[in-house]
Input
Amino acid sequence: MLSKMGYSLGRIRRAAGQARGIALGNRATRQAIARDQFFRLAARFTDVVLADSGTSQYFVSTHDKVVSRRTFRDGAFDAEQMARIMAVGHIPIAGRTVLDIGANIGTTSVEMIRQFGARHVIAFEPDPDNYHLLSLNILANGLQGSVVAHQLAVSDRVGAVEFGRSKTNWGDHRVMRGGRDPAREATSVMATTIDELVSGGVVDLGDVSMVWMDVQGHEARVLAGATSLIQAKVPVLTEYWPSVLREAGDLESIEHVIASNYRTIINLGDPEAPKPCAPSVLRADDVTELRRAERFVDLWLLP
Output
């Protein structure tokens, strides 16, 4: 009886706290809280809802508690961080092509065109559910002539690779190496390499302004299969997550690739930190200094 009462009181306190937040917050805060509550409730009735950010629309999954939930609540996923990243990088993408590797449901692909003036995005997303939403979001925003999506992982080899799907965070699916993770649903997906895409005429490196890469610890493998892209000196925006890279056995590999092929690193810090840190600049051969990062950070790799 006491445990049930404690649980009930806990729920009452949380509800009261949310009510105070709605009452005391500004209009944007109240709207965000209301959208978040609606999203949680909608999961009981539907698999997909439509998020309207004002300039773009996104079909999102009510079963994804991170990318889809935040997109429904706040607008395009990490839109503020994306704008900050692009401002710091000073990469001229207007009228050119962007490669979006690990495109998820397409928020980066769509905003690259809508906000930053890219002419063309080539997007890669191996997960079937994310790819389905990515395809819907290309259509929902009228970008079927501007964004080309491929249901593929990008790696260092062509063929099937083992893939682990997170049950709650659809932005944390990843190519697996060296054993299975009981917290993930194991499956296989098809993979290709940047070099294969270039040789096959799918990617024209002469028109590529940058790569946006978020592949959950598989970054070293992507770059290992991208000799042509590295030689073309294309800037790369990448997530760098030391603990996950170490788990995959690729921490030293990516540090070697960066030190050997890039001139400068701009560390943009943890995109989920309460307050964004000021960007810091490192020489590429000082990349090992970033091992101290507790979580992931966003990096510009500049040739």
Notes: The first strand starts at residue 48 and ends at 52. The two ends are 65 Å apart (CA to CA).
